[in-house]
């Protein structure tokens, strides 16, 4: 697409000119982004409301504030992140300068998703800017209003030479992916993740894939059911279940299940009242297509609906729904639910529950609710997942010190905070040697002799010490 | 065999550090006990000399094993991170975990170094690994296949030999990480194959590593170091200085100094010198020889197809369009391209793909720093060649066409681990959580913003003091009774004062 090519060329030329490199420039852009958010908070909230009927509180907490927090954190740490990292030297390199330099990669492509359309574009963009790159941002076409808003606001606040927004659907994205970028950051589904990786392979472009999966939630051992239920409900039904790290399904034994259901009912009522449909704090499904998908899953499920179950395709509404007696082979267990439907699968023992989890793809998040530390640590040690959180849901994402990313089918790479900066940087190893000590260097030159080798071995103490061996 | 490795991995026996250390120490013994077999094979494959081998292959492995064994407990331990006010009583850390089964595809130029070093990282991180040495260095591959299983857990770390077809079959399988060392063309195929399974990859590729010589440097020393970097292993090193950029005024001196160094190292007759290597095979011999065709040979150029021998050769006044400048040389031919200034050198370098290494010879630190700032490459080494490889606290890897990912030392451990974010909370302190639950009120938003988004340095605040304080603040924020939710304070858009 000519338009796309022209944009990419312009960005590449800008990058080559070096304008995105100086710390002052990066800080300036980040501060401008901060102004973008604070100046337009109302508009942003309205767009999110339009796209997802996102309750204002959720939009502030999970979208606007996450961006503001990431910006503040990045702005205050940028200088230290950009500084060269001097590394441990060994005896032979004591007189040399050895350091690692974080350098920008070039032109980055960021492809956003529709469930948190604002922060899933801006958080990677923050890392990209901080690392000194130029970027093309491609918001999801499904969250139309937010996409348009970003396309409108970003050029107004950020350097148009360095950053561009390209909107479009599947075709445009495919075309975009034919071009060469220096890093591609994609948030979305596994199927598309594969295509992105394939397209990247053509140009040897490194990628970060933030995918999904079914995040299991195990509840075993002694347990404060009321507290657990509240946190589970909060994490599950936030954004109407459309979070990549929402607890997808629950595993617990029968007794726990019996105690859990009324606790869930209570928590749901406390949060959304008796009629969640009329509650402003309850979100909607993003599109008719996704709503139909969820309705179909419910219809095909052989589980028993114990809470909720009402749906309205017109309104894209699905009531907070809980099912029990769900089998392993149920429709709800086929794919990531991504909606306000919570299946509970009864598994008697923790060991069996862990086997259940391990028989499946590694999820983006894994949750355990238990008052027993042993239970928590057993699950932690015997499973794998992008991230792990015990006795709560989602909040591990809000800590910028923790890398946010998947493993296996749930993704590769990570970001947030310093991790974003590192993701969009190249860690260049630099070694500056001196001109002296040529006499020592002689040890390594041919003609190779036993005695020279002996001296070198001694000097480097390769086998005795724990230092990295320097042969020179 | 992949299935067996996966089953072995799932038994969990790689988890304890003692197991990993045992395997590494066993690998160490292998390198010592089988020194002769290793040397013989390397000599057959690449005409490597008896003393040249430890220098370039095994010494660095021994050092890496030593370092890893020493540091493993530290690297594998949970890494705590900073918290915010709401998680102050929780454990927040990053836990390194194994990925599963790693595929290590080695190369032929330093078959031990580039095949075993990633394996060390894989073992340290607790993975199982399938090792696929390059079939081009076939004698070494055979030794690996025959002898490694005698020292390592052979179910956990099987060695697979074979050529292109076998590698293609391997690549169809699902691994948890693929570590490939080789050229960009195959690198793309590896990444493409990996994409089907969403497998992350580390690609250690190559490129043309430029070597800039500043006119004011000590040319004798510089050229000696460059000659060593270039002609070791007959130029078949991914980080060998590929070509030289210098001012035309010093070109002749550069040629002379390199000639002198070559004579010092390899005598007047490198062909008969045991310390001088050979091209790996006929195909590469023909490829490299052809590169001399359209350029002026300053010295060298002698070759013997029957021995895959090419003399240390320097080409002068080379044009950018010359054959020798079209691809990575990977042979003992050093072209010199003249540039009139540092600016021209930088432009020349930036017009090309990002190389694995950039070499700068200059006494002027400012110039060096300028070149670093205005170019990009996997790594940079000023005033010497190759040695950056051996500093294990420096990441070794490429960028752009020269690769992705890095390893050596802790970088290798991290590269082949999953760094899992962990937040371990308790079910108490529920009071504080109320801030974020619906029904949503303007007040709650304000407090939530305060608690969730303030970073805390735990060292300065006593945990015990903070907990009740936190509860108190939360209770006050929610007014009076922290144990009931009131729907009367519903969030009202008009009164948004957050």
UniProtKB/TrEMBL annotation, chain A:
Superkingdom, natural source: Eukaryota
Molecular function in Gene Ontology: 3-chloroallyl aldehyde dehydrogenase activity; aldehyde dehydrogenase (NAD+) activity
Domain Aldehyde dehydrogenase: 15-427
GO cellular component: cytoplasm
Pfam families found in the cross-reference section: Aldedh
Alphabetical UniProt keywords: NAD, Oxidoreductase
InterPro entries: Ald_DH/histidinol_DH, Ald_DH_C, Ald_DH_CS_CYS, Ald_DH_N, Aldehyde_DH_dom, Aldehyde_DH_NAD(P)
Protein family membership: Belongs to the aldehyde dehydrogenase family.
Protein name per its UniProtKB record: Aldehyde dehydrogenase
TrEMBL record, chain B:
Annotated catalysed reactions: decanal + NAD(+) + H2O = decanoate + NADH + 2 H(+); a fatty aldehyde + NAD(+) + H2O = a fatty acid + NADH + 2 H(+); an aldehyde + NAD(+) + H2O = a carboxylate + NADH + 2 H(+); octanal + NAD(+) + H2O = octanoate + NADH + 2 H(+)
PROSITE patterns: ALDEHYDE_DEHYDR_CYS, ALDEHYDE_DEHYDR_GLU
Keyword Transmembrane helix belongs to the record: yes
GO biological process per UniProt: aldehyde metabolic process; fatty acid metabolic process
Membrane-topology descriptor: Single-pass membrane protein
Positions annotated as active site in the UniProt record: 204, 238
GO terms for MF: 3-chloroallyl aldehyde dehydrogenase activity; farnesal dehydrogenase (NAD+) activity
Keyword Cell division: no
Subunit structure: Homodimer.
Identification of the protein by name: Aldehyde dehydrogenase
Provenance organism: Scleropages formosus
Lineage, highest ranks first: Eukaryota, Metazoa, Chordata, Craniata, Vertebrata
């Amino acid at each position: 697409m000519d338009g796309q090519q022209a944009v990419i060329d312009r960005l590449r030329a800008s990058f080559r000119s070096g304008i995105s490199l100086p710390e002052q420039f990066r800080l300036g852009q980040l501060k401008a982004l901060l102004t973008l958010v604070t100046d337009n908070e109302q508009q942003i909230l309205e767009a999110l409301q339009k796209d997802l009927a996102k309750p204002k509180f959720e939009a502030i907490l999970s979208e606007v504030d996450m961006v503001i927090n990431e910006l503040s954190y990045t702005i205050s740490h940028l200088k230290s992140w950009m500084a060269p990292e001097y590394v441990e030297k060994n005896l032979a390199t004591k007189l040399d300068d050895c350091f690692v330099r974080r350098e920008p990669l070039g032109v980055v492509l960021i492809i956003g998703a529709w469930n948190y359309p604002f922060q899933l574009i801006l958080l990677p963009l923050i890392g990209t800017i901080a690392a000194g790159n130029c970027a093309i941002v491609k918001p999801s076409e499904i969250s139309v209003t937010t996409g348009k808003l970003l396309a409108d606001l970003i050029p107004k606040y950020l350097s148009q030479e360095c950053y561009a927004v390209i909107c479009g659907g599947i075709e445009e994205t495919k075309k975009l992916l034919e071009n060469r970028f220096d890093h591609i950051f994609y948030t979305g589904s596994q199927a598309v993740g594969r295509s992105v990786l394939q397209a990247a392979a053509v140009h040897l472009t490194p990628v970060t894939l933030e995918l999904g999966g079914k995040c299991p939630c195990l509840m075993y051992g002694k347990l404060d059911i009321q507290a657990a239920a509240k946190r589970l409900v909060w994490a599950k039904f936030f954004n109407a279940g459309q979070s990549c790290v929402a607890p997808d399904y629950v595993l617990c034994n029968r007794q726990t299940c019996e105690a859990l259901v009324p606790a869930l009912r209570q928590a749901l009522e406390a949060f959304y009242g008796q009629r969640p449909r009329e509650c402003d704090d309850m979100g909607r499904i993003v599109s008719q297509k996704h709503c139909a998908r969820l309705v179909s899953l419910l219809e095909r499920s052989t589980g028993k609906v114990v809470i909720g179950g009402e749906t309205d395709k017109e309104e894209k509404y699905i009531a907070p729904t809980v099912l029990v007696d769900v089998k392993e082979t149920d429709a709800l267990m086929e794919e990531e639910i991504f909606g306000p439907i919570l299946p509970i699968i009864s598994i008697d023992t923790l060991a069996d529950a862990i086997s259940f989890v391990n028989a499946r793809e590694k999820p983006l998040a894994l949750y355990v609710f238990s008052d027993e530390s042993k239970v928590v640590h057993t699950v932690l040690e015997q499973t794998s997942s992008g991230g792990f959180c015990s006795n709560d849901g989602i909040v591990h994402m809000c800590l910028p010190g923790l890398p946010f990313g998947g493993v296996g089918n749930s993704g590769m790479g990570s970001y947030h905070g310093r991790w974003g900066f590192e993701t969009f940087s190249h860690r260049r190893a630099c070694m500056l040697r001196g001109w002296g000590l040529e006499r020592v260097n002689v040890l390594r030159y041919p003609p190779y002799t036993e005695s020279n080798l002996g001296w070198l071995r001694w000097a480097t103490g390769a086998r005795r010490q724990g230092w990295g061996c320097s042969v020179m | 065999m992949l299935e067996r490795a996966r089953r072995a991995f799932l038994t969990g026996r790689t988890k304890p550090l003692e197991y990993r250390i045992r395997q590494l120490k066993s690998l160490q013994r292998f390198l010592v006990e089988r020194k002769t077999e290793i040397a013989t094979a390397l000599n057959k494959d690449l005409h490597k000399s008896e003393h040249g081998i430890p220098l370039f292959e095994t010494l660095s492995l021994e050092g890496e094993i030593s370092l890893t064994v020493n540091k493993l407990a530290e690297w594998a331990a949970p890494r705590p991170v900073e918290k915010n006010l709401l998680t102050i009583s929780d454990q927040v850390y990053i836990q390194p975990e194994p990925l599963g089964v790693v595929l290590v595809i080695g190369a032929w130029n330093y078959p031990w170094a580039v095949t075993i070093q990633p394996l060390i990282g894989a073992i340290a991180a607790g993975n199982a690994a399938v090792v696929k040495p390059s079939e081009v260095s076939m004698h070494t591959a055979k030794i690996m296949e025959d002898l490694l299983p005698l020292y390592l857990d052979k179910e956990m770390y099987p060695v697979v030999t074979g050529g292109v077809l076998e590698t293609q079959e391997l690549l169809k399988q699902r691994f948890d990480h693929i570590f490939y060392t080789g050229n960009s063309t195959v690198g793309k195929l590896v990444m493409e194959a990996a994409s089907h399974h969403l497998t992350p990859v580390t690609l250690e590729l190559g490129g043309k590593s430029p070597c800039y010589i500043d006119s004011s440097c000590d040319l004798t020393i510089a050229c000696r170091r460059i000659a060593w970097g270039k002609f070791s292993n007959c130029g078949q090193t991914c980080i060998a200085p590929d070509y030289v950029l210098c001012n035309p005024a010093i070109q002749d001196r550069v040629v002379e100094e390199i000639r002198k160094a070559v004579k010092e190292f390899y005598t007047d007759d490198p062909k008969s010198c045991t310390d001088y290597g050979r091209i790996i095979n006929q195909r590469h011999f023909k490829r490299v020889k052809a590169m001399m065709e359209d350029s002026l040979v300053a010295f060298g150029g002698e070759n013997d197809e029957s021995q895959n021998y090419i003399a240390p050769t320097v080409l002068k006044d080379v044009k950018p369009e010359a054959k020798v400048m079209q691809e990575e040389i990977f042979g003992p031919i050093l072209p010199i391209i003249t540039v009139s200034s540092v600016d021209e050198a930088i432009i020349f370098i930036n017009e090309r793909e990002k190389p694995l290494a950039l070499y700068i010879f200059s006494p002027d630190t400012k110039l060096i720093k300028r070149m670093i700032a205005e170019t990009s490459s996997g790594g940079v080494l000023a005033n010497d060649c190759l040695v950056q490889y051996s500093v294990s606290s420096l990441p070794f890897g490429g960028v752009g066409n020269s690769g992705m990912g890095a390893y050596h030392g802790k970088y290798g451990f991290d590269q082949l681990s999953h760094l899992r974010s962990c937040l371990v909370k308790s079910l108490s302190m529920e009071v504080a959580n109320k801030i974020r639950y619906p029904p949503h009120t303007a007040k709650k938003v304000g407090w939530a913003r305060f608690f969730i988004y303030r970073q805390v340095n735990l060292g300065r605040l006593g945990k015990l003091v903070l907990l009740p304080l936190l509860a108190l603040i939360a209770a006050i924020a929610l007014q009076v009774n922290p144990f009931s939710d009131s729907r009367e304070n519903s969030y009202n858009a008009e009164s948004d004062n957050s």
